[in-house]
Specification:
With 371 residues, this protein is an alpha/beta fold. It is built from 13 helices and 13 strands. The strands form three sheets. Strands 10-9-8-11-12-13 form a six-stranded parallel sheet, sandwiched between helices. The chain has a five-stranded mixed sheet with strand order 3-4-6-5-7, sandwiched between helices. Strands 1-2 form a two-stranded antiparallel sheet. Bound molecules: nicotinamide-adenine-dinucleotide. Nicotinamide-adenine-dinucleotide (NAD) binds next to helix 5 and helix 6. Keywords: NAD, Nucleotide-binding, Oxidoreductase.
């Protein structure tokens, strides 16, 4: 049986896993089962041309096995692109635990997972993702040193929200330069969807830059914070955000928000936000282009958090992380240039940049074999 993924990016059948690996270029998929704790986990390593694979651990109550594999494959491929576009010597990987993070997560289960990570001898380094906090990684760390994203008191670099928002802000400035001819956001209207950890910080940068901010969230608590601290922000209902009159739409909530239903409603000239996998399907990049809306590829603009997180491996230096994140501005302008010259979408242009880098390095070296 072959089941189609919602995103149509991956189709998994137990028969077709090798075909998928060949198609999307995955090097390795490791299935882990631990009798004592009942742990069921998948570690997907997409490409280690640039270096060891690093990626978050997601714990989620998936409905079926195929969804677990799809998520691991999809997310690990995305990580390869993120590292490559930001010029890091790391490869893409992702781990997924099949289970309910609210009721099934415990120290023993996470330690069992850590044991599996250790068997890969550094070919895969694990961080946090949905369902897994920095504190959870402390349990994983008991069994393996191949962990990144620990709490500050355990040598980690702490919250990445501010630097992620700073990167998105740089992305907006570059996009404004491309579309409006100036990178000043003063007086520009920005519609922010999601006022969580990143969205709140982005509002701060935007208000400092004297932009006019319209925002929404589904949680009253997030709205209260913004109302109290930034009274100049215009709060609207969640379903009004797509059709509101604005210059830039900034999705900072969940993925898949730009789709057949929402794209026709947009009145903006630019989309630039922190959320991962903003486009429901790849074809939606073309749809935005046809509507004359410039799309800042998500994995390029939301790289600030990853940059700060990697500081943990390299020895964290705040100035270095800020400078590196500020480069998102130039990277985006380069992507926009390629997109215009080649008459392709900005997503294709970003992917092209990544694939070129991987090809060059592949000619010099091969896979990362661990220590
Ligand atoms: P968060 O959970 O703190 O905030 C998300 C906010 O979005 C919440 O306040 C939630 O209520 C709101 N929301 C959810 N659905 C909504 C809807 N339909 N309309 C309006 N608001 C809605 O998450 P975060 O850390 O701020 O991350 C935001 C996005 O950025 C996520 O997609 C995340 O994957 C991505 N991202 C975050 C980082 C980081 O450093 N935190 C780095 C890279 C990418």
């Amino acid at each position: 049986m072959v089941r189609k993924n919602k995103s149509k990016s991956f189709e998994v059948s137990m028969k077709g896993i090798f075909e998928l690996m060949k198609k999307y270029g995955h090097e390795q998929i490791v299935f882990n089962y631990d009798k004592a704790t009942g742990l069921k986990a998948v570690i997907a390593i997409h490409d280690t041309t640039l270096g060891p694979a690093i990626g978050g651990l997601r714990m989620w109550k998936y409905n079926e096995e195929q969804e677990v594999i799809e998520d691991a494959l999809h997310l690990s491929q995305g990580m390869t692109y993120k590292y490559a576009v930001h010029g890091f010597p790391y490869g893409g990987g992702k781990a997924v635990i099949w289970g309910d993070p609210y009721t099934e997560k415990n120290d023993e289960l996470l330690q069992a997972f850590g044991t599996f990570v250790e068997t890969l001898k550094g070919r895969f380094v694990v961080g946090t993702d949905v369902g897994i906090s920095s504190t959870d990684l402390v349990s994983v760390r008991k069994q393996t040193k191949y962990v990144v994203g620990l709490p500050e008191e355990f040598g980690g670099v702490g919250s990445t929200a501010v630097i992620t928002a700073f990167g998105v802000y740089q992305g907006m400035k570059a996009s404004a330069k491309e579309v409006f001819g100036s990178d000043s956001l003063k007086g520009k209207t920005i519609a922010v969807q999601g006022l969580g950890k990143v969205g709140k910080e982005l509002v701060h940068f935007l208000c400092q830059g004297e932009a006019k901010v319209i925002a929404t969230d589904i949680f009253a608590e997030s709205l209260t914070f913004v109302r109290e601290n930034y009274p100049q922000v215009d709060i609207i209902e969640p379903d009004e955000i797509y059709s509101v009159d604005c210059d830039i739409f900034s999705p900072c909530a969940l993925g898949g928000v730009l789709n057949d239903e929402t794209i026709p409603q947009l009145k903006c000239k630019v989309v630039c936000g922190a959320a991962n996998n903003v486009l429901k399907e790849m074809r939606h990049a073309e749809m935005l282009k046809e509507r004359g809306i410039l799309y800042a590829p998500d994995y390029v603009v939301n790289g600030g958090g990853l940059i700060q997180g990697l500081g943990e491996l390299e020895g964290y230096n705040q100035d270095w992380a800020i400078n590196k994140t500020a480069q998102i501005y130039d990277t985006l302008l380069r992507i926009y240039q390629i997109s215009k010259e080649e008459k392709i979408t900005t997503v294709e242009a970003a992917n092209r940049l990544v694939e070129k880098r991987l090809q060059i390095i592949q000619q010099i070296k091969s896979k990362y074999l661990g220590k």
